[in-house]
Amino acid sequence: MEQVQPTEKQVQVKKKKRVYSLDMLRGIIVALSVFLSTIPYGKADYPYFRHAEWYGVTLIDIILPTFITIFGVSMAIAYQRGVKWEKILKRTVRLIVYGIIFTIIVEWTLDFPTIRLTGVLQMFALLGIVTVAITKFVQSPLKLMMIALLVSSVYGGLILYTGQSCEGGLPQPECNPSHAIDTAVFGEKHLYHHGERGYDPEGLVTSLSALSNVLFGYAFGRLILTRKETGAWRELLGIGVLLIAASLAWDHFLPYNKRLWTPAFALLAAGFAAGMLSILYLVFDKRKGDAKETALKPVVWFLEAYGRNSFLIYFGKFMLGSVLIHLSVTDDGIEKSLSRVINEWVATFAPHPQLAYGLLNLIFWTVVAFVCHKKKWYLKV
Fold it and tell me: For a FRET experiment, which of 96, 162, 177, 269 has its CA 20 to 30 Å from that of 153?
C-alpha cells in the first residue's frame, strides 16, 4: 500500500499544538492589573487608573469582569470532554477556603466575627459551579449567549425596579438590592468593609450579573472549539461589536457601575473580551507556522508566562501589597511600612514616583512569571 506523505500545511498544523489567544488575553489583563492596582495614592490623582467611585467606568474597572469572562472561556476548553462532579466540588471548596485565607492576609485580620465571607475567589467558586450545572444541559454557543442576555436583563430589571425609590431614580451606595439581600444572607459585619457599607461588589447580588460574563465566556470558548478549521475570529469580532453596542444602549437607562455590576458594565466587558480574542487570534494564531518561531516569540513568551500563572499573579500581588503595607521597619527612629520605605526610595530618582512604584511591582512579578514559566510551575486551582 502506498504511504501518503503529509502535506507541509498538515505538518505545520500538527507542530503547532497550542492556541495562544486565550493565554495572550489573560496575560495582558493580569499584567495590566499588576501595574494599575499597585500605583499608590499620592500627589498625582491618575483618575483613569482608579476605580470609579460609583457610576462611570475606568480602565482598571474592566479588568475583573474581563478576567471572569476569560474564566468562562477556560471552562469551555477544560471541560470539553465532560466534567467530574467530585473534582468540581473539591475545586469549589478549595476556592472558598483560599478566598477566606486571601481575605485574612489582605485585610490583615483574624477577627472572625467580622471577617468578610464574600470575595473574588468565593465569586469564582459560585460562578464556576453554577456554570457547570447550566452547561451540563446547554452547550450551544447561541443558546448560552441568549441565557447570558436573559440573566443580564433580569438583573437589570431588578436593579431598575428597586432603584425607583432611590435618589435620582437610580440605585445609590446606601440604596440598592445588595444592601438588603447580601446583608440578610451574610450579615453586615461579614461584607465588604472598604468605604461606606451598603453594597458588596462580590456579593450574591453582583454574582448574578457576573454569571452572564462567565456564560458569554463559555459560549466564546465553544465557538473556538467548534471553529477549529477556520477560527472563530469573525464571529467573535461581530459578537464583540454587538455586545458593546448593547452596553451603550443599557448605559442610557442604567449607567456603567462596577460596584453593582450593571448590565451595561457586564456587556462592555464581555464585548471587550470577544473583540480582543478575535484580534489576538488574527495576530498569534491565524498564521501558517507557530507564533513562537516568528519575531513575535518574545511577546508570546512574556504574555504566556503571565497568562498561564494568572491566579498566582493576580491574587499574589494583593497579598504582597498587604504584607508591604503592614510590615514595618525603623528608619531614622521613625517606624515606617515597607511600602512607604520603597516609595520614598523610588521618589529619590523617579520623576513620577507613583508610576515608578507600579512599574517596580510589574518588574518583580515579571521575574516571578518568567522563572515559573521556564520551570513549568503553574498554580492550578
Answer: 96
